[in-house]
Write a structure and sequence with these properties.
about 130 residues
């Protein structure tokens, strides 16, 4: 699946790709592959002993944000089309919100309820945005 969100369909181009629906946009905004990597890293750090877990998780979080932005940019780049900066920003923020919602370090000081509520609200709202 192409991760670039389609909001314009040019009829002169022979129909092209179908326009993305609200649900297609929500799926394309969520960086599921990076979130899965985060869950794996969290499990590895929890299993390790005698390591500075908080420091490792903060470093992993910052790297996760950077990788999310770069990975989304790479997956949405199309020849002859401008960079979809809004989609990259929304996906990067989504990664941060998923980390908070999962209740993992470095955000384990927040009550899980708050992260879950933010995640639900963010996920419902972002589908309304076109990149």
């Amino acid at each position: 699946m192409n991760r670039r969100i389609q909001t314009v369909q040019l009829q002169a181009a022979g129909g092209g790709q179908a326009l993305d629906t609200y649900f297609d946009k929500v799926l394309k905004y969520i960086p599921a592959d990076i979130v899965a990597a985060w869950v794996t890293i969290n499990g590895m750090v929890k299993a390790a002993t005698d390591v500075p877990a908080k420091t490792i998780m903060w470093i992993a979080f910052v790297i996760g944000l950077i990788i999310t932005a770069l990975w989304t940019w790479k997956q949405t780049t199309a020849p002859g089309q401008p960079t979809v900066v809004k989609q990259i920003v929304i996906s990067t923020i989504a990664f941060g919100i998923w980390v908070i919602a999962l209740g993992t370090p470095p955000f384990d000081f927040l009550k899980p309820l708050y992260g879950s509520l933010i995640l639900i609200l963010y996920t419902l709202i972002v589908g309304k945005f076109n990149p």
